[in-house]
């Protein structure tokens, strides 16, 4: 967070909007271990894609798989922070419901991304091995 920036109103320029959005991305990746793990995993997937020389279509599928996981993890982080902002870390059944459902969306996204990964990589690995 930019400690000198006490702005609470609308952004006056597009450049400023982008700057705040980039700050949000940096904060999420710096503070959230799950996002760091996703970034590492994404790099492994990209390296594997280069090693196996996957097609343009497969790059598109892999990009979608990576994007949906990262985006759902960022939304999960947003929900966690919003809940904590409202309940101030006090136990609340509704807070639990929201956080569990939000974590559930990450789980489902990771599952479907894994299916995409298998769909893309298994044929290449199969051809390589047999
Ligand atoms: N204020 C609260 N009231 C009730 N339950 C809570 C509250 N805060 C957290 N929990 C419970 O603890 C779990 C983990 O909390 P939280 O999501 O903040 O931690 P986390 O380790 O960052 O989770 P994740 O691994 O999904 O990012 C929630 O899914 C929920 O079940």
UniProtKB/TrEMBL annotation:
Q: Name one GO molecular function term.
A: metal ion binding
Residues the record lists as binding substrate: 73
For this UniProt record, give its keywords in alphabetical order, as a comma-separated list.
ATP-binding, Cell membrane, Kinase, Lipid biosynthesis, Lipid metabolism, Magnesium, Membrane, Metal-binding, Nucleotide-binding, Phospholipid biosynthesis, Phospholipid metabolism, Transferase, Transmembrane, Transmembrane helix
Q: Binding of ATP: at which residues?
A: 32, 80, 99-100
Q: Where is the active site?
A: 73 (proton acceptor)
Name the residues that bind a divalent metal cation.
Answer: 32, 80
As for membrane topology, the entry says:
Multi-pass membrane protein
Q: Where in the cell is it found?
A: Cell membrane
Record-linked InterPro entries: DAGK, DAGK_sf, UDPK
Q: Which residues cross the membrane?
A: 39-72, 106-126
The GO cellular component terms are:
plasma membrane
Q: What is its main location?
A: membrane
Alphabetized Pfam families for the sequence: DAGK_prokar
Cofactor binding note? Mn(2+), Zn(2+), Cd(2+) and Co(2+) support activity to lesser extents.
- What family does the Swiss-Prot or TrEMBL record give for this protein? Belongs to the bacterial diacylglycerol kinase family.
Name of the protein in question: Diacylglycerol kinase
Gene source species: Lactobacillus selangorensis
